[in-house]
Write a structure and sequence with these properties.
The protein is mainly beta. It has one helix and ten strands.
Length: 214
């Protein structure tokens, strides 16, 4: 069952929504929501939740109790600077988009989402990634465009299933050679990165067929 309130100019979610416990996909994108009630925790069958393009500065702990949230969680284009620690329990989630917020670091709970295949965290204010990024062993796409990253942790070399890394527009000065060991990497985007130290192994990546954009 899909319930959509897309682009309805809502400032609050109708209370009736929380009684519809058979909902599998809830779309609340492109409204004027500044809060989501804890009542969302009653929607235990949710597989997709879209809260993108709102005015949220916080999201409720209860989302972390949605055990069947497996497909998509969209939180992009809000005003978030943190996520509840309960989100680490979303171990079945495959896609997370937190782009277009004001995160200064990747929330630690995100690295508990060990089934993530795609992580989008572009257009934030992140200055570093934690070594715990290595916990995302299933990750295939990592999108970090337009942050404030100057390097990446060596532990990124443990993401053996990674296929794409988007680092456009970051003030990178150094990249770990561990990236060159990623066996499935086929796209590394370094456009608009102007201060990166000369890195010989980029040519090695290209020689094996990885597209390096710079």
């Amino acid at each position: 069952m899909i319930l959509s309130f897309w682009k309805q100019d809502l400032t609050r979610v109708p209370d009736s929504v929380w009684a519809q416990t058979d909902i599998e996909e809830l779309i609340l994108a492109e409204n004027r929501l500044s809060e989501i009630p804890e009542g969302i925790g009653s929607l235990q069958k949710l597989r997709t939740l879209d809260l993108g393009h709102n005015r949220l500065s916080t999201v409720p702990d209860a989302i972390g109790r949605l055990e069947d949230l497996t497909d998509f969680l969209y939180l992009h284009d809000n005003r978030l600077c943190a996520l509840p620690s309960s989100f680490a329990a979303l171990t079945k989630l495959r896609y997370l988009n937190i782009s277009g917020n004001v995160f200064e670091q990747l929330p630690e709970c995100v690295t508990g989402m060990t089934s993530l295949i795609e992580l989008r965290a572009s257009d934030n204010q992140m200055t570093a990634l934690s070594d715990s990024i290595a916990r995302l062993a299933s990750l295939r796409e990592l999108h970090l465009r337009n942050n404030r990253l100057t390097t990446l942790p060596e532990s990124i070399g443990q993401l053996q299933d990674l296929r794409q890394i988007d680092l456009r527009g970051n003030p990178l000065r150094h990249l770990p050679a561990a990236i060159a060991t990623l066996p499935r990497l086929y796209k590394l985007d370094l456009r608009w990165v102007t201060a990166l130290d000369p890195t010989g192994w980029l040519a090695d990546l290209e020689s094996r067929g990885c597209a390096v954009y710079r």
